[in-house]
Amino acid sequence: MMFDKIKDIICSFVDLESEEITAESKLTVDLGLCSMDLAMLSSEIENEFGVSISAKTFATVKTVGGIVEYIENELG
Q1: What is the pLDDT of residue 17?
Q2: Is 90 exceeded by the pLDDT of residue 32?
Q3: In the chain, what percentage of residues exceed pLDDT 70?
Q4: How far apart are CA 60 and CA 53, in angstroms?
Q5: What is the overall mean pLDDT for the chain?
Q6: Based on the number of CB atoms within 10 Å of its own CB, is 19 exposed (0-12), middle (13-18) or buried (19 or more)?
């Protein structure tokens, strides 16, 4: 499942268990990701799912659910 894979990727950047991450979790406020973390997260997601995410686009995604939605839209 895509959501679970994204949570696993995020867990490599934060000191949380995947069960603590929800679709509503805010990337910076709730998970504490900084701009460097977000850049690396974007790269990991691109590699895992084969989608391209510009920094400008990724900056508009605020939640874990937003990442899932973006990838699903890109993959059609």
Answers
A1: 92
A2: yes
A3: 100
A4: 11
A5: 92
A6: exposed
Question: Dihedral (C-alpha) 67, 28, 7, 38: value to the nearest 10 degrees?
Answer: 70
What's the domain range around 58? 2-75
Q: Are 33 and 9 in contact (CB under 8 A)?
A: no
* Torsion-angle region of 6 (φ positive above 0: left; ψ -120 to 50: alpha; else: beta): alpha
- Per the structure, how many domains does the chain have? 1
CATH number at residue 40: 1.10.1200.10
50/36 Cα distance (integer angstroms): 21
Phi and psi, residue 26, nearest 5°: -80, 135
The packing angle between helices 2-11 and 35-49, to 10°, is 140
- Alpha helix stretches (DSSP H) within 1-76: 2-11, 35-49, 55-60, 64-75
